[in-house]
Write a structure and sequence with these properties.
This protein is of the alpha/beta class. The protein has helices at 2-15, 39-51, 95-107, 123-133, 178-181, 190-202, 249-257, 277-285, 302-308, 314-327, 345-358, 385-405; strands at 18-20, 29-34, 64-67, 72-78, 89-94, 113-115, 137-139, 160-164, 166-167, 186-187, 207-211, 219-220, 228-229, 242-243, 247-248, 264-268, 292-294, 331-338, 362-367. The protein folds into two domains: 2-139, 3-Layer(aba) Sandwich (Rossmann fold); 147-405, Alpha-Beta Horseshoe (pyruvate-formate lyase- activating enzyme), CATH 3.80.30. The chain contains twelve helices and 19 strands.
Amino acid sequence: MNDRDSETLLGLFLDKGYSSVENPEDADVILVNTCSVRDHAENRAISLLGSYKNLKEPQNPKCKIQNKSKISNHKFSDTRPPTPDARKIIGLIGCMARNRGEEILKKMHHLDLVVGPAHFDKIPEYVDKIRQEGIRVINTEDGERSEILYRPLYRLEPGYAQVVISTGCSNYCSYCVVPFVRGPLRCRKPKDIIDEVKRNVDLGIRRITLLGQNVNDYHHKPPSHQVTKSQGEDLRGTRYAVHSTNASFVELLKMVAGIEGIEEIDFITSHPKNTSRELFQVMAESSKIKKHIHLPFQSGSNRILGLMNRGYTGKDYIDLARDYRDLVKGTLSTDVIVGFPQETEDDFLQTKDILEKVNFKYAYIFKYSPRPNTKACSFKDDVPAEEKQRRHRILLGLQKQISLTNKL
């Protein structure tokens, strides 16, 4: 998601007459797009922002409040005529801005701009305002994104594009900060998504990735219709899927696959609790949809999965993976967390067991770190750091062996 946000923001600036540069020293505007999912990412962002302090001249410290990590750097050179205030502008944007923006703005006097994910479309306007009025601007309010953000035609990679279908999340997994920094689930209109895909086709793009915190949650309904929830027998059916009288994710996927000119489609990320056989059937039947799915299982322990508020069991996940392989005959990747509060050695071994049984193409394995506002932050972080490191090392080694021998 951050990669696409960075790309489209760069497109907005290019459309206003800026050019992109490689070195921070040559830039007029430097924007650090941040992630708050893990503590390590935030620490890297703070370090990077601090390193830009020596690029700034002393400035007026007054702050005007407009509204009460993997790291992506935006560096722009303004080729337009100079404005009254031509000093270098440095900004913190993205999830960390919403999560800790006011705190960081107070500590880092060389920052000019702090903007959360909901208002990226306004950033060029804010940059102009900072230059013209010599102020600092912060906007960390949540809200629905403007479609303006998805209009720029700039693409970082020829022949490939990412298309956001939804923002935010309403699942509230106990360890995850996303609902607090990106807001609740908000789905774009099917027409807007299809129009964006068609614009990509017009640019000569043939490969598309559909993006959402959980793509299976996608649903859209016109204002005059009511959402209905379908009832099913088990996790592998439609028990958890939210459908609307307009479009579910499976229906949207079919629409995209039906667009002439598109040759390959994939999507991320899927949540096991509402991944259905219907989705697998569409994947199996379409020659355009890539035969791969990213399906985080996070833990193999039912007790830990309950504490995580994941909505499925270890057996559910194994059965789901088996159904996927039977129907799609494709590859799987996953996310895993080790050292979650109260995780015992037995809990860890159950996680290790799923990693061994499912045979993932690759896995992202992380050590748990508490995130502000999440429910798990109230749990005692009782797994020692050295034990987290040991479990992390064991699973990394195991997955490396699996990946080397994986013939799928």
